[in-house]
Amino acid sequence: MGIRTAPFYGSFADSYSTKKHWDPTADLEIINPARGHMTCVGYAPSCRRRCQNPINQANRASAHRLLESLSYIDVSTTDISAQLRQLAGLTLCVRYHQGQNENMVRTWTKQIRAQKEPDMQESIQELQRLIREAQLLASKISRSSGQSPRQHFPTFSEDETFHTKWQEPEQSCHYQERVKKMQEEEQRRKRQEEIQRKAREEQNLRRKREEEQRQQERDEKERQRKKREEEERQKKREEEEIQRKKDEQEARREEAREREERKERIRLKGEQVRKEREEKARLQAEKEKQEWSKLWIPYVSRWEEIKKNGAKGTSEHLRAVIPWPVKSGDYKDVSDTSVEEFFKKAVPQDANAATKLQYMKAECMKWHTDRVPRLFGVIEDEALVRIFTTVAQVVVKMKQELQ
């Protein structure tokens, strides 16, 4: 879909001028404002808007050249209907809107007439002004010669030219004299106007100087008033600054006091928390100490019973009857750490180093790998053997540390 390609006819040299008289692209609304570029200029009734079909490159180039040539034509004196018809053929899409060619020419003609009418009215008014000046000149000449103005100034209809009605003033024998008198009268009038102009200028200058003097006085009063107001504002700012510094100083003192109070509250609270924590830890340690102290005597008593009565049996029986040196007494909790903790905390805390060494020597005898078979028989359960070995290694290590 595109715009019908038509040959470009740019041979309008007889109507051309050396300057542009108008902008046909803008005045004829060639650019589609909805798209921002040139589209079909026809109207699409189904869409109730301007057609938005694009124009192919060849037709667009021809349209631009034709628009450029139209800008140099004075449309107030030249009929450009043929060019407008050619432009419509280039800018209407072939598929839908070629039938709107004459409508576009009429529309564009109305737009041009509406836009150029003010310029034509201005030209008519200028021509009328020139005619009035010529009539005034003819009237002056006629008064000086006693002749009717119509003898010196043409009256012509719209179909007659100015030159066919104009009668040359030189036909009068007194023409030069009248012209001289008119020139002298014009010079006197100009001198009088110059005198009046200078008088007006002097009067205006005097009034201007007086007004300037009054203005200076007003300005001085205004300056003094502003100075007083500025001094008052400055004084107020200084007072406000002093008060602001006092308020800031007081606020800093209050903030420092609150900060110290807050620190003291935090310190007291921290001290209280610390004491509570220490007390809790002390009670916990005391409780734990009591719990450990209660484990040693039953542990020793059970071993004495085993030594006295023996404890041979199955692995399950041994796991149940042997007093294992851990806080829970359960073989499942036996480990290097738990066994060492037991002998450090369950042994009477009031015992000295020598007594503790004797305790550990006795433990080494109990858990020695050579003594275990005599007390409990041959143990084939490897897991149980590993438990005995763990206890034996720990008591040997602790005995060596005490030696």
TrEMBL record:
Domain of life: Eukaryota
Annotated stretches, region: Disordered: 141-179, 201-263
Feature: compositional bias, Polar residues: 141-150
Name under which the protein is recorded: Uncharacterized protein
Source species taxonomy: Eukaryota, Fungi, Dikarya, Ascomycota, Pezizomycotina
